[in-house]
Amino acid sequence: MRKKPLSIALLAAATVTVAGCGGGGASTGEAATSPADPGKASGTITVLTNRTDLVQDGTMKKYAAEFRKTHPKVTVKFQGITDYEGEVKIRMNTENYGDVLLIPSVIAKGDYPKFFAPLGDTKDMAKTYRFTGKTDVRGKTYGIANFGTVNGLVYNKAVWKKAGITDWPTTPARFLDDLKQIKAKTGATPYYTNFKDGWPLSSPWTNSVGSVSCDVNASDALATSDKPWAEGSDLNVLDTLLHDIVHDRLSEKDPTTTNWETSKTDLAKGRIGSMLLGSWAVNQMRDAATKAGKDPDDIGFMPVPVQKDGTFCATMLSDYQLAVNTHSKNKSAARAWIDWFTEKSGFAAEEGGVSALTSISFPDVLKPYEDNDVKLIERSEAKTEQVNAIDNASEIGLAKQDYRQKLIDIARGAQKGSLQDYFDDLDKRWADAAATAGN
Amino acid sequence: MTDTTSTAPSTPARQAAPVGRRPRRGVPPTRSWRDHPLRRITPWLFLLAPLALLITFTYVPVGNMIYYSFTDWDGVSPDRSVVGFDNYTQLFTRPELFRVFFVSFYYLAASAVQIVIALYFATVLSFDLRFRNFFKGILFFPYLINGVAIGFVFLYFFQDGGTLDSVLSWFGVGGDHAWLGDPESANTSLAGVSVWRFTGLNFVLFLGAIQSIPGELYEAAQLDGASRRQQFRHIIAPSIRPVLSLSVILAISGSLAVFEIPYIMTGGATGTSTFVIQTVKLAFQFNKTGLASACAVVLLLIILVITWIQRRLVPDDKVDLV
Question: Which superkingdom is the protein from (chain B) (predicted)?
């Protein structure tokens, strides 16, 4: 009998532990507004970032020191997180997830008000900022883009020239022909999929949805589409292109052991012809070229090889969005940092991205796009929540690598099936999921 | 545990207590610390730390997991609703979720190989042999390396034109094969890596068991003219049976729950996805924490059932050689 009180005590202790872990707490809903006088904003704020490289090499510290000149009472601390998505998601079960953070992609858009402080009315925000639609929930904006990125193919001009190609290919078929020329005349790997690292198969390809149809609502349309992979649709054209590249053996021989870091040097050295990425990658490739003793000007950037009515379209998307923790004690200091970071730090230009401010024009990287009248489209994000819900329910993962890895496996014969069967299967899964989720 | 407590305050306390309570011959009651009521809970106080740790880090998380498996939680949202057995029905009505168990057969076959290799080396190295300790070290070494490091090392090893290809080309064999390129060779390669990694552990277990066999038995056997093979058959094999059956249980549960090596090396691409990888993807890619928890609960149950069946088939007899 003596056992009882003790077991009760233990049970109680255990319950307390559970309660302690489970407590999400109600959000305060208080807005994070810019401080009226920068000199008066005070407090210590913690900024979570995925850029561990910039935290380690002191770049972030330099930004913080610069920030302190105008906001002397604010101390900024950084936490660089390698597995940003995974770790922050778990931390968001508590109230302790920094003062300023990048919105993890797993957070459902509708849940933003529970986690982040509103930054202002979207109507007003949209006048000064690009990409506000992405974090707009019921008229309030919850995040400001780090920077925007334009999708396209990073390519080595020297290699393409050596293969005798000077113009940008305008159709997928021409692109495949060009790749064949490159393979025949230069011996370089015409296209590099980065299969092993995976993400180069997910975001750059899915982000390109819209560049085929030149439609601002291309992404939103998925919410109501029963056949996203139907003939001629954005996803169909893009995924067929990827399939054909691999099927015609125009990509690397053994995709399962690719390496993103070496691929940068390989492209810079002319061993790789092209990769589909975002404009942010161009500066990294140029750095790699300089380090490898090659000419950084050899790195070029061209749009996805599809034209609509004779014009190229390229999608422009926001990178991670900076938000303020709704539980933060120093909301105005946190907001001051976001404002300063997007307006004054020069971070976006440094990264080869498009600034979130509408007043700042495009970076140098996009000069060739401007010269060739590539139409930039900022996709509508009005139905992102529904699209993501369907995507998760169907377990396809438009923004995950798995489904395109399987596509590549089919293309190179490592898995059974034909492209059309695979598209039919994806369409069916999407339609089934759409019937239950997202509405 | 109550038994331990009631018998634990052995003789002095038990005898002292009545003396204190019923003073005889007018002796004033002697109060010593042994009579103090706190004395009774002393053993519990000692147990408090390990029990708290055990409960906080084992039973509460498992309880939470079971609870999540009945919800539609996405892993981050503060709202979750209880959906009853929905996740379990879904799990059992979608055959593709169980298809990944076929991959486990590669690892199961590999663990058979692994046990045989470990047993062979443990037997050989338990006899007097030149450089015996050196070889023991070599065999155990892979187990000491971190799984992530192993994943990366072998990624280079299996690379197109990597270590394996160049070694093979010295012997004029192939030398140009995408080892992780198609499901069959990828799974075999990955299972090979896990043999390389875990043989050391089995080896050490077997070696320990073999060395606990009294040396006189061998001497007697040798006098009777038993060969090495007969010694193994009649002395070593029966005496290490409990360890052998433990290894088999570990091998089976390990093969069902393979994660680290394929996740790091291929991320589950090209048909190398295992049940655990699939569970992790459900939880962290598709935000189906509820369904993933149900998968985890089912895996736990499967392993418990298999272990139970195995214990019934091979009961843990007392080994009695002498």
Answer: Bacteria
